[in-house]
Design goal:
ten-stranded parallel β-sheet, 9% helix, 310 residues, Pectate Lyase C-like, mainly beta, 18-stranded parallel β-sheet, elongated
């Protein structure tokens, strides 16, 4: 065989090998997990993976991990734009002694978590911890049992950004039995803005913490039976909580507003709390649309400024 012929054959073999390797390592736009899957599989519909962590490395950015059947799919760290979708089945994460989902994505990444049950089994650190990314959507989820209240832990959803800005959206989600609070949002740089829609925060020390540089709107939701505070608006760098058609009932304190922060209430019910509103902020920062109901509280607490809707 001539040297030129040998060179051509070797080159063809190298190209074929690289092509096969590229196909083997390609990431799919949609991957699948199953309770009887295997993380050695390609995570296809017919050969699903076992865990979210196994599937995420085989899923392309902006792709989706779908759940085929009921199962526990393990804790996962998300570092790119992705959707985890448990529609139509029981998609569970058991996160005893650790955090269920850590989101540490890129500055322009949007993450969706849908129809997932996250159970900390009494020792979980946090249900979801969001450290970085453009936006986080949590939809139709149940989070409970986050019982480890060491520093920085014990939250259902813990937003602790260190970025310019982030947007949080939580919809149709229930959070219970966490050691510190249901949802806590804050950022050290920029701001975090978000909407909580049809959320239930029940039986928690504090239902909702709107912390440093956080601006949250809550609507059509229930914050009930807290052992300390229903809502804490407590950001030292400024924070705003706006509430529309929200029930905050049966708490020692329904809403606690820090000195530099703002509370807006419209069509809300604050009922059967020891004190409805505790505030270190001036009355001008406590704004009511005039259509709220304060019923059966031991004390209604701080007076609000009525701002009539136009």
């Amino acid at each position: 065989m001539s040297k030129s012929r040998l060179f051509v054959n070797c080159l063809a073999l190298i190209v074929l090998t690289l092509g096969i390797s590229s196909i083997a390592n390609a990431q799919a736009t949609r991957t699948w997990v199953s309770g009887v899957g295997d993380d050695a599989n390609p995570c296809s519909r017919t050969a699903p993976c076992k865990t979210f962590a196994g599937a995420i490395s085989k899923t392309a950015a902006q792709g989706e991990i779908s759940v085929l059947d009921p199962g526990g799919f393990g804790v996962v760290t998300i570092t790119k734009a992705i959707t985890i979708n448990g529609d139509g089945t029981l998609a569970g994460i058991l996160n005893a002694g650790t955090t269920g989902i850590i989101v540490n994505a890129g500055a322009n990444d949007v993450v969706y978590i849908r129809n997932v049950s996250i159970n900390g089994a009494g020792t979980g650190l946090n249900g979801i911890r969001w450290l970085a990314g453009k936006a986080l959507h949590v939809e139709n989820c149940n989070i409970y049992g986050q019982g480890n209240n060491t520093a920085g832990n014990g939250h259902g959803i813990f937003v602790n950004l260190a970025a310019t800005a982030g947007n949080l959206f939580v919809k149709d989600t229930n959070i219970k039995t966490c050691a510190v609070d249901g949802i806590s949002a804050q950022t050290s740089v920029g701001f975090v803005a978000g909407v909580l829609d049809r959320v239930r925060l029940e039986g928690l020390p504090t239902g909702l913490v709107i912390g440093n540089n956080a601006f949250l709107s809550v609507r059509d939701s229930v914050i009930n039976l807290g052992t300390s505070t229903g809502v804490s608006i407590s950001g030292s760098g400024g924070a705003t909580g706006s509430f529309d058609n929200v029930m905050i009932n049966n708490n020692p304190t329904a809403i606690n507003v820090g000195a530099t922060n703002i509370m807006n209430l419209s069509s809300c019910t604050l009922e059967s709390n020891t004190t409805a509103i505790v505030s270190a902020a001036p009355q001008a920062n406590l704004r009511s649309s005039g259509n709220n109901r304060l019923l059966g509280n031991g004390s209604d607490g701080a007076a609000m400024t009525v701002v009539l809707q136009k």
